[in-house]
User: Fold these one by one.
Assistant:
Number 1:
Amino acid sequence: MTELPKLLLHADALLHARWVLPMHEVGKVLEHQIIAITNGCIVDMGPRVELLGRYMAGYEYFLDHHVVMPGFINAHGHSPMTLLRGYADDMPLRPWLEQKIWPAETRWLSESYVAAGTRLAVAEMLLSGTTTFTDMYFHSEVVGSVADECGIRAQLASPVFDFPTAWTGSADEGIAKAERLHDQYSGHPRIGVAFGPHAPYTVSDAPLRKIAMHSEELDIGIHMHLHENAQEISEGKQLYGLRPLRRLKQLDLLSPRLQCVHMTHLLDDEIQLLKDTGAHVIHCPASNLKLASGICRVADLQAHGVNVALGTNGSASNNALDMLAELRLAALLAKGSSNDASVVPAAQALAMATLNGARALGIDNKVGSIEPGKQADLIAIDLEHPRTQPVYDPCSTLTYSAAASQISHVWVDGQALVVNHQLTRMDLAQVLEEARRWGAGIAAGA
Ligand SMILES: [Zn+2]
């Protein structure tokens, strides 16, 4: 009797990876794996020797010198500010905003400005391994349509200010715009919407209460700059008699839907409050250092079980949207500021840039780790380079040695958006030309 031929399963793509960091267990490293992707989803993963011959695939990627891991989640930024990269540096936060950034935005802001800046940001983020980004900027609907067309995943934190801006006349209008945007993107596979009250010093109590109520009704996030520097905290105390986090507690904003961006100068009882309410912290170390804003007590937050994600902030205050650089800085800064070299170990820094970001954005059921059933938001990093050899522990190599330029492949929802370091859906030359044109105009008009 002849043996029946084995029936091959279909997969859209197979990734043959030298190493895999699945990230659902911090520090776990798997070797010689195959990941099978179908309809944008991870459908299978296992040792190469076991899975070889089980699948017939449309595409196969042989990543013999690569680590495959979940894509980075840049949990805080202002994408269109790429057009002001290097426009004003070496200034503290408030004069930097009030004398340089806000006047330039008043002069130049338009839908085409936002579209050009977002395209530049998305190109930079994809090429450096970011598969999801949060954006808080005017014309969120333009940022959303650029993200949609480029295939990246995004959370649009639609901004709310008390005072008139180039986009809204009042806080109520900002809230209404956020809700319309939420309706527009409801059911979208890659784009979500959150309320983006700008900061405690730009949004008063009544709209914050309204946001707290509506975010609960709609079950969407609240994304807010909070405790960015000592001035914000002391002014908050003068105006409201409370430090900003306590004020937000009184206004019912603290819950697992709240994404607190920055959180420098924290007191012990505030760390406990974050833990008790399940609010998330989004740490932006480069921006905090560059604007001399203060230091986020990441090691203490993590010791208390608070979820800490990572963001680059806008590229006017960083000045790069490079999550690998950001996670390295987060690891180094935590050690230096706590006098303890064992805090934020390499694998933990990688978790902050992936699964913790997914948790903060409420999308950890979809992305942030490599598990069958999750969406295939993945990156491959080529370690065949002098700065990343030899490899004892890929977590250490990635956190302390690797550069963004070693990221060779990026998939979002299983779509290959970067292959062999090249963008597949975006015309990079055109994106750069457009950015140069805006830069020349801003420089001439400054
Ligand atoms: Zn920011």
Note: The chain has 16 helices and 16 strands.
Number 2:
Amino acid sequence: MTDRSDLKTFRWKGREGPFELFLSDHTFAPSKVSELLAEALELSGGETVIDMGCGSGVLSIVAARLGAGEVHGVDAAPDTVEIATLNAERLGVADRTHFYQGDLFDPLPRDLKADVIIGDVSGIPDPVARVTGWFPSGRGGGPRGSELPIRMLREAPGWLKEGGKLLLPTGTLQDETSILQVAKDLFGRLTKLVERQFPLPAVVAESQEVLALMKERVVELTQRGSRLLWAARVWECTV
Ligand SMILES: C[S@@+](CC[C@H](N)C(=O)[O-])C[C@H]1O[C@@H](n2cnc3c(N)ncnc32)[C@H](O)[C@@H]1O
């Protein structure tokens, strides 16, 4: 490991926390949706898990702590392997976690089959990603926030064991209808596991590009008092 005094620390307070994570300028900082996914993760022990869009490795670490036999995390961010491995080592789960950098399932061993895929790739519209700064790359999941999740969904069934499941986060900040339609066509059964509402950051509501997406009903918000809220949900997709 070269000197990484540039790294920041982040305190994970979700499931299996609290614990500290190291993040670089390229690493996604775990969010409320990461917490929802961690809540929704049910493991009985020994499972093989693919953590797609693993960022800091946070959900891989949670999965390992919950008893997964092996976890394979992938992210497009340039220093994924270094950062996620560092976090897994510090938290004592490096023997069960493997990290890869690249596009979706491309870097994974060809013969890998998972019991569970955590399908958490970027999924908000690019204009929302730009104004919120939530994504270090400045990119979301495509113009409508659905393009990348749909590409991930189309590849996912081939990486699942028989009886396996995909955990899919969706929300009203993206073209959720299109994502759920593709998930239903590919998997057949979708069960909503958790749902939560979050206040919309003011910068999002003020962006002209986001207003255009609201007019098209790609982004759907609800008003509560003076606040605009968006909803996030986690689905279990099974064949
Ligand atoms: C919403 S973040 C989730 C990160 C992590 N699961 C967490 O909870 O903190 C989505 C992640 O998808 C990654 N990503 C974007 N495009 C990708 C691609 N084509 N292949 C793999 N990962 C990608 C981003 O770099 C980002 O870290």
Note: Residues 28, 30, 34, 53-56, 58-59, 74-77, 103-104, 120-122, 137, 148 surround S-adenosylmethionine (CB under 6 Å).
Number 3:
Amino acid sequence: MKLRDKVAIVTGGGSGIGAAACYAFAREGARVAVVNRSPAKAEAVSRAIESEGGRAIAIAADVSVSADARRLVEATAADLGVPDIVFNNAGISPSGRITDISEAEWDECLNIDLKSVFLIARSAIPLMIAAGGGVILNTAGTFGIRAAKNKAAYSAAKAGVINLTRSIALDYARDNIRCNVICPGYVDTPLNEGFPPAARDAFLDQYQPLSGLIGAADVAEMAVYLASDEAKMITGGVFVLDGGQQAGLYA
Ligand SMILES: NC(=O)c1ccc[n+]([C@@H]2O[C@H](COP(=O)([O-])OP(=O)(O)OC[C@H]3O[C@@H](n4cnc5c(N)ncnc54)[C@H](O)[C@@H]3O)[C@@H](O)[C@H]2O)c1
């Protein structure tokens, strides 16, 4: 087991990549705090882990709210122990150019996708330092490396997550805290439910060199590795998992 006796917080743990990470972390021996805005989704994942003999708790929280960010870290520490791993993965993916979206829509995306990393990491880091170290993982996306058309707020937020990852890595390396970011390409999750299968297949055929769909479990396996001691010398890294999209122009 790669995460035996570790305590992990996973935001957005109620579905998609986050749920897959919760199951994978639990399978590797971690006690898991499943954080989601939807209490029912968080409960369902934590119950599934416990029914398999793992240890998990469900925490309903909005990661973009400062008080919730503090509470979710404190509740995890009280129930499961000081978090060794924080996976900042919750996110939304709105579309629109800057002339199409409202200021409120901009703020919502930046607050959930980027500010949440600041809020949760700053609550967890003092506990990690006192405990001797820890791991912070973030989910950005390939649109944070190269922007996508009609995804202005999302592309900006995810680019911010990438450089915030590097800042945290530099600032806390000597506290034995590692921070890395995963950049998935198109992953088959509820986030993409609105994408009709035919359009999705045409998109992937044009832009993704490797055939097939990236699954949430593929991303979860990368998260397990980066959270584990096998990655003990890796920090500030940007890990692309995209079927080759970022290798160059393919279309
Ligand atoms: N699916 C993809 O193609 C893809 C690609 C690149 C990056 N990502 C990123 O992966 C992460 C996970 O997305 P997913 O694909 O698993 O989709 P998803 O919609 O299944 O998961 C996102 C989860 O975050 C939760 N969430 C949203 N806002 C929240 C908030 N304010 N507080 C707490 N929870 C909140 C949602 O309820 C949901 O459970 C996101 O950050 C997303 O941007 C996804």
Note: The first strand starts at residue 7 and ends at 11.
